[in-house]
Design a protein that fits this description.
108 residues; mainly alpha
């Protein structure tokens, strides 16, 4: 497998993420500098905190489901990437996202 192609892709993703972080920080700073009301600033920060928690929950549930899928592939002793193996892994990822949706819906 040629890993040389991943270097520019990862580099592009890192630059894109860095730009997003800087833009978000500047927007927050400008909003606070314009003397936005304290209630709006608190609500904005609380919304960001909830968004981070939901992101962590989503990744956690999805990765656990994907790990179960990989465990099933290993237990089945399938060593080649076949459509069946891919279906198990994609299905596990989908089930993880659905489980997240149900958990998040109950929390709201």
């Amino acid at each position: 497998m040629q890993f040389e192609i991943f270097i520019p892709i990862v580099f592009f993703l890192c630059i894109t993420y860095a730009i997003k972080v800087v833009v978000d920080a500047r927007v927050r700073r400008r909003f606070i500098e314009t003397n936005g009301s304290d209630d709006i600033v608190r609500a904005m920060l609380a919304g960001e905190e909830q968004h981070r928690r939901h992101g962590s929950l989503r990744w956690g549930v999805t990765l656990v489901a994907l790990a179960i899928g990989f465990g099933l592939v290993e237990m089945g002793d399938w060593s080649d990437l076949t459509p069946g193996v891919l279906a198990i892994l994609l299905g596990a990822t989908g089930l993880g996202n659905l489980a997240y949706w149900f958990i998040a819906r109950k929390q709201a």
